[in-house]
User: Fold these one by one.
Assistant:
Number 1:
Amino acid sequence: MISLILNTRKRTPLLHRLLESISNTVSDFDRIEVLIAFDNDDNDTKLFSSVSVYPMEVRWFEWTRPKNLHTSLNRLASLAVGDYIFVLNDDVEFLTMKWDEQIDRGHSDEIWYIHTNDNSADKENTAQYASFPILTRAAYEALGYFMSEKFVGLGADVHLWRVFDSVNRIKKTSIELDHVCHRTVIHVQNPDVVAAEMRNNSWSNYVDCWSVDVSEDVERVRACL
């Protein structure tokens, strides 16, 4: 099974488009679950969660709005039952048909970071890291978390890539994702309220994802290889 995990806040039209895109592109509904966290002050999403129906399993989690988005994502990852854990944003749409077939069956007991592709216009320094990576169950368990909580918002995707790149455990796919709110620089420069608040929180708690020490994380993963 593949577990898709994401946070959402007051973006129900975007969230619906994401879930529709999953429905329209996945080949095996029984093979996936979607775990979505939303804030207990987000009445729009609360209503949406109570009435929305999709052909795959969607599990909703309502809790207090976190100051650190990765605390919430790690909580979702701990609740996921999948052999593979796939992190998303609510402003993403799947473009690749039968994308789930590209995720190797039977290799979840091996440590792999699985790379996906997206059109984010604001990737820093290198396009080698995935904005929306997948970890095998073994990789997640070796690392001990999905996203580093050193980062409250931006930067954890780079950190995760650096860890698994250091141990040469990255697999490529041709899975393509449309990062709707990051398609162009103009999109990035005109964020909605949710994105603006997240970015402000990130800059107020800044950690340089390119220079922060990853040696402890790398050694923990290497010890399991």
Number 2:
Amino acid sequence: MGKELPLARPEEEGQSVLLASSGSGEPVTTSSIRNKRTQGHKHPRGDERGETEGFKMESKGSRKAERANASASTKAGRRRDNKDRKSDRGDEGKDKSSRRSAQKLGIVHPGSYCDKSEIVPHHWIEVENILDGSLFRCRLCLRHLWLPRIESDAKQLSALVEQHGRNEGYCQFLNQHRPAKMLMAKLQDLRRLEAETADKREFARMADKILSDREYDRK
């Protein structure tokens, strides 16, 4: 007990060492600073890599799933568009088959005479070149007649008239030329409407409706 023990001794190897007496009188060293290497808590490389790799794999998998869902939705949209286009084509075919023929529209060839007794012949005047043909109007009775200007069409019309008669042959030819069929149908209906309608304003209103109708041969 007579000896004095120093409470501390110089720092060794970067550590502060305290001296204490044990029951046996031997000094015991205790470190006041823990080893910095053991103090810092780090994940093992395997854990770090495992966590990082797991995150990457998860993100890649989610991206693949998103791409797969996007491609599936795109394909589904394309299939729907194709179905819509097919249905539209089907409707177009139905529209074509549902149009009225020249016979159903009441188109009649004006013949060679203005009157039924066949005394006064038509005096045709060409009023307009339209639809690869010429539109004629009789100066006396104001009837109209459309005739093709192309040589091949003119020969076809002559053959149909010779084979089926004037009215039927002319209607069959117009059935192959829809714009000309629409024109003749409107002109003949306007002529009938004018004879049946006394009110000129009502006639003008109905005439405008007929002339502006682009689906005039629709059933």
